[in-house]
Every structure is written in C-alpha cells, then in structure tokens.
Specification:
Largest sheet of chain A: 7 strands, mixed
Largest sheet of chain B: 6 strands, mixed
Structural class of chain A: mainly beta
Number of helices of chain B: 0
Oligomer: heterodimer
Distance between the termini of chain B: 40 Å
Largest interface: A-B, 28 and 25 residues
Strand content of chain A: over 45%
Order of helices and strands of chain B: EEEEEEEEEEE
Distance between the termini of chain A: 30 Å
Radius of gyration of chain B: 14 Å
C-alpha cells in the first residue's frame, strides 16, 4: 500500500457543508496528488504538491483547495460540497523507481454529497 | 487535449488464454507509460511501467511499447480468474521524468476471465 492512508474511508455529507479529506504517508515522499474517479471519466487530477506549502492545480480543481503543512500530510478540502463532487477520491505519491518515477495510490475515500 | 484511449470492454477471455489490452495516446513526447489493475471497490495497483520501445516482461505480464505508432499494450499470459479487473493505462505526457509529472489516465478496460 506504499505507506499511504486516507481518512475518512467513507463519508456522507449534505450539500453546502465543508469537507476535508486527509492523505497521510509515512515515507517522506516529496510529490503527492489528489485524484477523483468517476464512471466514464477515469482518474482525473484535482491538485498536486511538490513539497511543504507548495501546491498547484490539476485538471478539475474548481471547488477544491489543498494544503500541505507537513511532508506526510496532504489535505483536500471541499469548501462547500455539491452533489457533483460525489466521487471516489484517491491520494497518490510519486516514488523513484529505476530510471523514472511511479505513482502509488492510497485506499481511497468514497464521498457522497446528498 | 492530451488523451489516452482504451477500449472500455468488457473483454472476456477463457482461463489459461492470453489477454491482450491496448492503449493509444495522443502526445508524441510522452516518455513513460504505466499499467494499473483495479479491482472493483479498490484502488489502482501498479503492475507494469515501461519507458523504452519494445517489450518488458514481469511474470505473466508483458508490456509492449511502440512510440512511433503511439500505442502501449499489456499481455497477460495464462489468464486466471483473479486477473478479472479493470486495467488502467496511464501516460506521462511530458518530456521529463522527475517525479512531479501529471499522469493522464485512460478510462480503463474491464477484463473478465471465464473459468
């Protein structure tokens, strides 16, 4: 599991409420990513981080913010959840392997916005 | 728009046969390519990475890359029921490979191995 945990694993929330998802890694990897996965769309990048306090937007960043105050934690916040943000959210880390880097995923968080 | 295309399937293969999964990509400068396996309700699991033209073998899995034709494939020999899953193709559509690249994923091919 590449030493990645995500919390919570499941969450049901109401439209308009703030939600924070946590990704925690134990191996001090520099690069971390948040994806969402929806039927018909595959995995899409929301935000990513190069290091502490260093983040950038991905393909589908609207409505999401992130923070990384420690190397091991990457937080994804939905400021005001909408039904369109019902999805499965995966955190990933980038790990050096041979000639390149490979991404490994956490177990995921299933979020339902009602 | 950088794209990665996969046949969504489902692809049904008899147990013991070879399963062949294909992926095409649009960005010619892409440098690294990955195959992930995802069981229903689980997270994607990296099974193969390939960076150079040709074949790369790991156990029952062989990844094949052809940059000129812009496709990458995954062969699974001696298919087992436990290989039934969705297989995701991912491409690094950039010239670099420093760890901070943003992968582009295909939507996946659902593979079913028939006992």
């Amino acid at each position: 599991d590449a030493g990645i945990t995500q919390s919570p694993r499941h969450k049901v929330t109401e439209t308009g409420t703030p939600v924070t998802l946590r990704c925690h890694q134990t191996e001090n990897h520099r690069y971390m990513y948040w994806y969402r996965q929806d039927p018909g769309h595959g995995l899409r990048l929301i935000h990513y981080s190069y290091g502490v306090k260093d983040t950038d937007k991905g393909e589908v960043s609207d409505g999401y913010s992130v923070s990384r105050s420690k190397t091991e934690d990457f937080l994804l916040t939905l400021e005001s959840a909408t039904s369109s943000q019902t999805s499965v959210y995966f955190c990933a880390i980038s790990v050096r392997s041979g000639v390149g880097y490979e991404q490994y995923f956490g177990p995921g968080t299933r979020l339902t916005v009602t | 728009q950088k794209e990665v295309e996969q046949n969504s399937g489902p692809l049904s293969v008899p147990e013991g046969a070879i399963a062949s999964l294909n992926c095409t990509y649009s960005d010619r400068v892409s440098q690294s390519f990955f195959w992930y396996r995802q069981y229903s309700g689980k997270s994607p699991e990296l099974i193969m990475s390939i960076y150079s033209n040709g074949d790369k073998e790991d156990g029952r899995f062989t990844a094949q890359l052809n940059k000129a034709s812009q496709y990458v494939s995954l062969l699974i020999r001696d298919s087992q029921p436990s290989d039934s899953a969705t297989y995701l193709c991912a491409v690094n559509p950039q010239l670099t490979n420093f760890g901070n690249e943003k992968l582009t994923f295909g939507t996946g091919t659902r593979l079913t191995i028939i006992p």
